[in-house]
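Hi R.,

Here's the chain you asked about this morning:
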Amino acid sequence: MEGSNDDIRPIPRNPLRFDLLPLCAAHVEARGGTLQDVDAQGDFLASLGQPLTRAVADSTLARGLRAEVMFAALVVSLGRITLIKQEDVGTAWTTRRELTVPDYPSCCRMAPCSWSR
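And here is the predicted structure, written out as tokens:
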């Protein structure tokens, strides 16, 4: 039998390594630059201050993110989950305009993964 929910743990990841570069690339490309341009890198770093300050002060965003974390905790606490992953970050590509990406696709012992639909 698979492990119980007492065994469920986050898979370690390094967001500064894997999330920072795509964020910088999107910022630099939107301005017609390249990642190798040291000035563009400095511009990216300088651009973080105001959006970060606004995000930290945005109570609606904070409540929404908190609700997502509580949802994940609730799903795990139900005792059937084998995998749950946050999907709010990253680009999704589709030809189906009606398709939406769930906040937390999941795999359960009793049902197929929500990715398989």
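One quick note: The chain is about 45% helix and 5% strand.

Cheers,
M.
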